[in-house]
Amino acid sequence: MTIDTWRDSAPTAGTAVRGYVADAARAVDLPGDVAEVLATSYREVSVQVPLRRDDGSLVVAQGYRVQHNGARGPYKGGLRYHADADLDEVRALAALMTWKTALLDLPFGGAKGGIRIDPATLSQRELQSLTRTFALSLSHVLGAYRDIPAPDVNTNAQVMAWFMDAYSSRHGYTPAAVTGKPIEMGGAPGREAATGRGLVYVVEAAARRWGWDLTGKRVVVQGFGNVGSWAAREFAALGARVVAVSDVRGGVVNDRGLDVDGLVRTVSGGGSVTEIDVAHTPIGLDELMTMECDILVPAALGNAITEDNAAAVAAAVVVEGANHPVTPAADRILADRGVRVVPDILANGGGVTGSYFEWTQNIQQFRWREERFNAELGDRLQSAFTQVADRAEDTGSSYRLAAYSIALDRVARAVRLRGYV
């Protein structure tokens, strides 16, 4: 497979990642033999995940784990439970993790996993049973020095606790086999907030580079789950104005700034941002994406900004809190319009960086204080931004191309050093 064949005509998540890597491969003049190794996944596992429902019926869900490349270390990547999860998406996200861990200079490769199911339809018992079955089905390809899962869409610390316990039942107590766990089971103080907080650390570094003062800057956050809610909290703490947020039920706006703490309390109690009892105006999801603002954070699922709405985006900078929220066609439109894009492999890298810190603590059996965790997180992410910005300025390229070029260089060196080519 050559670099030219890394692009397909079908507009899928996999196409997007392969396209970005193809651009970077040309930029760094990647040798063809290395491209051949990196073009496909090392291992793809597809398993049945049978689940006996509370009413006695049987559902057989499809589960996946894709290990893209492990030249730089054990495979690392999250587990997502979603009705639309499929092999192409998981394959693309596994490759994305390879480039993300390399960009952040973490000693990991890239993987991703998922189950094609809607977890909202499951009871707590059913969710636990599903998770344990999935863990045991994959345990032969996982491990603290082989492949370490973490939370992703619709999975959380509780799911990771069940997953780790099931794995440990077969292999002995192994807290380092999974990250994103509850603190009581070897989780790291600071890990829960790491993706959203890390995103804001990156924006702080960017603001210094651009000569921005974040005080009073208008921020719009699409998606108010773990990433979006923590990012909103951190932006508010810096004095920025979070003027609009949304979740799956709709959005709310207040030009003077929303009560972020109130939003968090409402959502933590099982409510929607649309149910907040302070001053706000309802706003549709499409309208929210094109609001005038300084910083737009798409932090839900992919493909939030496409060629259909990119021309209407009125933000000065888009910071990708979700994975691939901007399609390649939209990316080109935004670039032509002078809208800066901080790419996902940098902007949301706090999650896997925090997982690295948790894994390290589990291996060493020594827990850090949260202050150290946050300081290390900020240092690593802001250093990565500086490297990306320097490469972009030196080459006249976008932040995305610069980020992928740095990552590809590092993985390619590891592939050659290990004798894969």
Task: Provide the descriptors you would attach to this structure in a database record.
single chain; 421 residues; Rossmann fold; seven-stranded mixed β-sheet; 44% helix; 19% strand
CATH architecture of the domain at 194-338: 3-Layer(aba) Sandwich
What is the straight-line distance between the termini? Answer: 14 Å
Low-pLDDT runs of 5+ residues are none
Mean pLDDT: 95
Helix/strand structural class = alpha/beta
- Would you count the extended β strands for me? 12
Shape: globular
Strand order of the largest sheet: 9-8-7-6-10-11-12
Helix content: 40-55%
CATH homology group of the domain at 194-338: NAD(P)-binding Rossmann-like Domain
Order of helices and strands: HHEEEHEHEHHEHEEHEHEEHEHHHH
Provide the β-strand percentage band: 15-25%
Here the CATH topology of the domain at 194-338 equals: Rossmann fold
Q: How many helices?
A: 14
Q: Sheet bearing the most strands, described?
A: 7 strands, mixed
CA gyration radius, whole angstroms? 21 Å
Which CATH class of the domain at 194-338 is shown? Answer: Alpha Beta
Structure commentary:
The chain has 421 residues and is of the alpha/beta class. Among the domains are: 40-171, Leucine Dehydrogenase, chain A, domain 1 (Rossmann fold, 3-Layer(aba) Sandwich), CATH 3.40.50; 194-338, Rossmann fold (3-Layer(aba) Sandwich), CATH 3.40.50.720. It has helices at residues 13-27, 32-38, 87-103, 124-138, 157-171, 194-210, 226-237, 260-268, 285-289, 328-336, 344-347, 350-364, 370-395, 399-417, and strands at 43-52, 58-69, 75-82, 109-116, 147-151, 218-222, 241-247, 250-253, 281-283, 292-298, 314-319, 340-342. The strands form two sheets. Strands 9-8-7-6-10-11-12 form a seven-stranded mixed sheet. A five-stranded mixed sheet has the order 1-2-4-3-5. Helix 7 links the parallel strand 6 (218-222) and strand 7 (241-247). Helix 6 (194-210) packs across helix 7. The radius of gyration is 21 Å and the shape is globular. The chain starts with 12 loop residues before the first helix and ends with a helix.
